[in-house]
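FAQ: What does a multi-protein file look like?

Like this. Sequence, then tokens, then the next protein.
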Amino acid sequence: LDTPSGEDVDENGCSTSQLDTDMDGVNDANDACPDTPAGENVDNVGCSSSQEDADNDEVMDAFDACPNTPLGAVVDAAGCAASQLDSDGDTITDDRDQCPTTTLGEPVNGVGCAATERDTDDDGVMDASDICDSTPFSENADAQGCSPSQKDSDGDGVNDDVDNCPGTENGLNVDMLGCATNQRDADSDGISDADDTCPVTPADEQVDANGCSDSQKDEDLDDIMNNKDLCPDTPVTQTVDLDGCSEQQKDDDEDGIKNHVDECPNTPEDELINAVGCALFQLDSDQDGVNDAEDAFKFDANESVDTDNDGVADRWDAYPEDPTRSQAEVEESGNGLLYGVIVLLIVGLLGGGGYFYTRKPEMTVGPFDEAMNSMDAATEQNMGDEKNLPSLEGTGPQQWEENGVHWSRDANGQLSYYDATSQQWVPFQG
């Protein structure tokens, strides 16, 4: 009945504008909430409170803990957005709470954080435990929130970041670098100034326990520092050169004989030498200016030449190039017998008076001694050969041999005999 003209009707002859499916008193055509539970009071659009969503957050007002949620805000099942929640009950809504799990009852700052949750200086240590709450951003902090620029570990008044001596004993006066006298190391050699005998050691030099490097030490007290001293053990009384070496320590010709006992300081390399550093060609035993190697009579300063190697010096040798003879041939005269008698008397005196040639004990010889003795052996061999003795008449120098003794008479009549031990002619004192 009374169905408006033109409206569709159901099987009961009723159009939508005439139906009230939920029987809430609002026809379906005008009912915003067509499924209102029976018995609930509805508003003029047919909705009860359980069906209304005043803030359009899709949570019905009957269940909406936050009925005034801002439009478009994401809400939870209770119809509340973060801006409406305070999960930890610290009075700071979750949308502003940087510490959403603050322990109930702890005072918080404007962002909802208690001291146990804050790290004001962002050093990784919460403010509640941070002794140094303003740590510079670029510095690392310890477990107490302090960086070296904020700490003074040894309590000397100098912060650790500029303290060169961080372990100063309590009570000691320190300098601007935090070091007491017993901690300073002015030359940075690892030895404190209090124990450093050499406080200005050059950089990069190794030092001993006293803080001294070789360039600062002179252990043998020769005024040449160890680093330049080639002879570091020079005895105190000896004079040294610029290398710190005395003559007793040097061997300039490197022959194994030290300079102070080397009688031949310029011996060539690889030469055989004797105990005083001389090679054969350097010796002049009789100091006559002729080296032993060229001296036929190396122990006779008066003689040096024996061309025919017969043991008779050339100046006494009537035949200096004939090793078989050396005495001038003279005519017989009455004086010959007289000279013969004199010779026999002299020989007798020498023989009866105890003239002996004592042989030196045998010694072990080396290559050098063998070379030195080679000339003596040749000389003794020649001298050992018996020669025919002419008569003594004549006015020139003469030599002869009698019973193993070599005799000579010079132009002035001086009679001499040859001493095999000294290898010299000895004037006869008759």
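And here is the next protein:
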Amino acid sequence: MLDHNRAYYEVASKLGVHVHDIHDIIVWGNHGESMVADLTQATFTKDGKTQKVVDVLDHDYVFDTFFKKIGHRAWDILEHRGFTSAASPTKAAIQHMKAWLFGTAPGEVLSMGIPVPEGNPYGIKPGVVFSFPCNVDKEGHIHVVEGFKVNDWLREKLAFTENDLFHEKEIALEHLAQ
């Protein structure tokens, strides 16, 4: 949720709209530099007109600058302030728990880190926690939202963040075994 929120606020600022006017930005995979902040699915509404974000923003921004900026955000804050922000992660944790407890609004998609389910629609291997586009029903059941297109750019980025997570898991298990 933290990177999800950062992505929404970054795009809202770039487009001059409120975050509630943007839909379907997805943060896939890991947290940090290997996560994938994806605008290929995103839309926004401005002056009563709904448009695809990729049709309005510069190609290099969408496919390079944006996801690097979101992935480096924590380091940028630390470098600028000398310490990390506590408010943003706290807000993200509360939003995550609120979705679990009360569900998401109809049509709302959140980027949620969940244990990878068997047979997920995006081909990610089970065994790690991975951020997917999700919604939550009123009973608190989390559902991976299906139907988002995975182009070649996204497929490559998903494979990278998936491999990164499995590498981190391997390192963690080695430390636990000591």
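Q: Is there any per-entry metadata?
A: Some entries carry free-text notes. For the entry above: The longest strand covers residues 129-136.
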